[in-house]
Amino acid sequence: DVKVTQSSRYLVKRTGEKVFLECVQDMDHENMFWYRQDPGLGLRLIYFSYDVKMKEKGDIPEGYSVSREKKERFSLILESASTNQTSMYLCASSEGWHTEAFFGQGTRLTVV
Amino acid sequence: GNSVTQMEGPVTLSEEAFLTINCTYTATGYPSLFWYVQYPGEGLQLLLKATKADDKGSNKGFEATYRKETTSFHLEKGSVQVSDSAVYFCALLNSGGGADGLTFGKGTHLIIQP
Questions:
Q1: In chain A, % of residues over pLDDT 90
Q2: Are A33 and B101 an interchain contact pair (Cβ–Cβ within 8 Å)?
Q3: Among B88, B97, B93, CA closest to A101
Q4: Chains A, B: CB contacts under 8 A, how many?
């Protein structure tokens, strides 16, 4: 089974902090994704990566950056956390562009 | 562009009732279609998929048929259980080579009462 693991289930951070969310997949997938999930808005794509050191902006990249130094790991970085970034963050990976994505368990981030 | 529209709910049913969650889509090309389920406090799990017109995806008693003529992929189950209470997401993946992953609907919250 594909396993996508996010480093934390719950995080509480202060406004202005730099926050790192980590995601690791164990199936040698090419593509990795970061989404945020908010009530009434569904899932929105923040960034994705199709190869090591490659990244592309999704629908809502503002206030975020990403890093993919190794194929199995994709990090989401909040450069200066703000309260409107309080959300559930979901990482996913997929083998190719025409295959389904597999999700991690999610990180619920609260910025106070 | 791509979009997915689904009923948002909450949808409340009694145990053993028949379930339909509607999903329609807009896409260029010939997308693959998916239903994902999210149980409380968890990430998304793939429930079923269909990759071409008239395909039927099925899993755990749930079914959905890819209808190209009506651009729909409605989720059905003949007899729901309390354990089916979750949020269900319809999604599409375009075959046109769009390198941006899945497009999701906003999710339907399903509540099954004993």
A1: 79
A2: yes
A3: B93
A4: 60
